[in-house]
């Protein structure tokens, strides 16, 4: 069974640009969550989607957005990039939103110059 | 109240030792407490998890101890091996928000041969 797949794995952007990251969950999983990981702030929850609906949102500015498609695949977008957005962005999937048993991908490493 | 506090930040043990990592929480609505293991360049992987109705859970060499009254839980790694060297994160979530994990800051464990 394939794991959570995130693309791209690495990307470099400049301030002011926008970026879209993609996540394909484990087959059969309908819940997708996104996290930001930085050395200073650790792992922070961004948002969670289930059946194309955002169920939960973390304390991030509106520049961070996401969506989920009917096949459970998800994308997150960051607009007007800032230097502080440099981070590892992790996607996790689970079969339902009621379980905390999350399966993480290897992440997308974003560097903002 | 949403925080999970983890200690120590780093830990060095000899092979065969028993590293112990501690976490504390405030939110009594938390009802799922997983531990994740992360190797460099990889996403976090679920190691073991516990719910508040159980005081201890063992899976292989990994044991969670849970003290509901003190609002604390800990991870013990028996007979630690160099391959256990990784960063360990405790986390907590509320039942119907399973995709929203609140993570501790992480403990970098090094097991010396």
In words, what does this structure look like?
The complex is a heterodimer of chains A (113) and B (113). Chain A is mainly β and 113 residues long. Helices cover 0% and strands 53% of the residues of chain A. Chain A contains no helices and eleven strands. Chain A has strands at 5-7, 10-13, 19-24, 31-38, 42-50, 53-57, 64-68, 74-78, 87-94, 103-104, 108-112. In chain A, strands 2, 4, 5, 6, 9, 10 and 11 form a seven-stranded mixed sheet that branches. A four-stranded antiparallel sheet of chain A has the order 1-3-8-7, with no helix packed on it. Chain B has 113 residues and is mainly β. Chain B has no helices and eleven strands. In chain B, strands 2, 4, 5, 9, 10 and 11 form a six-stranded mixed sheet that branches. A five-stranded antiparallel sheet of chain B has the order 1-3-8-7-6, with no helix packed on it. The model of chain B has no long low-confidence stretch (mean pLDDT 95). Classes of the chains: A mainly beta (113), B mainly beta (113). The A-B interface holds A 4, 31-33, 35, 42-45, 48, 50, 55-56, 58, 90, 92, 94, 96-107 and B 32, 34, 36, 41-46, 49, 89, 91, 93, 95-106.
What attributes does this structure have?
heterodimer, A: 113 residues, mainly beta, seven-stranded mixed beta sheet, four-stranded antiparallel beta sheet, 11 strands, globular, B: 113 residues, six-stranded mixed beta sheet, five-stranded antiparallel beta sheet, 0% helix
Structural class of chain B: mainly beta
Q: What is the largest interface, and how many residues per chain?
A: A-B, 29 and 25 residues
- State mean pLDDT of chain A (0 to 100 scale): 95
Instruction: Return Rg of chain B in Å.
Output: 13 Å
What does the average pLDDT of chain B come to? 95
Distance between the termini of chain A: 37 Å
